[in-house]
Write a structure and sequence with these properties.
The structure is a single chain. With 146 residues, the protein is α+β, with helices and mostly antiparallel strands. It is 21% helix and 36% strand. The longest helix has 11 residues. It starts with 6 loop residues before the first strand and ends in a 5-residue tail after the last strand. A hairpin with a 4-residue loop joins strand 2 and strand 3. The protein contains 3 helices and 8 strands. The structure holds ligand V0V.
Length: 146
């Protein structure tokens, strides 16, 4: 079992979207949210934006909009198969190496041998949906000061 102190909060929920600007417009112009961060992650094949409410605090889960850089990317294939919608849920952790080790020891398959770089310089890892009850579960350790 993972030491429960290592899980901090729900960091974000990720939506697969075909068009990032249209998805941003809905959240900002209709819901009144704001873009907290935007970047392109070539390795993950996404253009992404992190959104928060007007009163967003550090422990409020953010919404991550994930648009594919092409049809052969993870999000491109997800959209072709499932259409737009929730693609992942991310839990923020204090120590991604310790959590990864504990998950592996519990028999949970992680997708990468080592964490990859995610939004804002964070370190990210994913647990396979077949080992989590059907959810693509990301664990994320934010970069210091982000
Ligand atoms: C696939 N499955 C899912 C799923 N994707 N179940 C729940 N949620 C998802 N997102 C199920 C699918 O229904 C199948 O079940 C089975 O897994 C195999 O699916 P597949 O369509 O053949 O897909 P695969 O195996 O080619 O790819 C699935 C995995 C892929 C999870 C391996 O999506 C992956 O590598 N994800 C991790 C990277 C990622 O998501 N990057 C984009 C976000 P049945 O039909 O066999 O029962 S980047 C990001 O989050 C960043 C940068 C950040 O947070 O900072």
């Amino acid at each position: 079992m993972v030491n429960s102190d290592l899980f901090l909060c729900v960091d974000h929920v990720g939506y697969a979207v075909p068009n990032l600007d249209e998805a941003i417009t809905f959240h900002c112009d209709v819901l009144g949210w704001r873009v907290l961060h935007r970047e392109r992650n070539e390795e993950q094949g996404v253009e992404e934006a992190m959104l928060g409410t007007g009163t967003q605090g550090a422990e409020n889960a953010q919404i991550q909009l994930l648009a594919p850089l092409g049809p052969d990317t993870t999000i491109g294939k997800y959209l072709a198969k499932n259409g737009a919608g929730i693609q992942q849920v991310a839990y923020r952790v204090a120590d991604i190496d310790a959590v990864s080790e504990a998950l592996r020891a519990s028999g949970v398959r992680l997708l990468y041998p080592e964490p990859k770089i995610g939004t804002g310089g964070s370190r990210i890892q994913f647990a396979h949906p077949k080992d989590t009850g059907g959810i693509l579960l990301e664990i994320v350790e934010p970069a210091a000061g982000h």
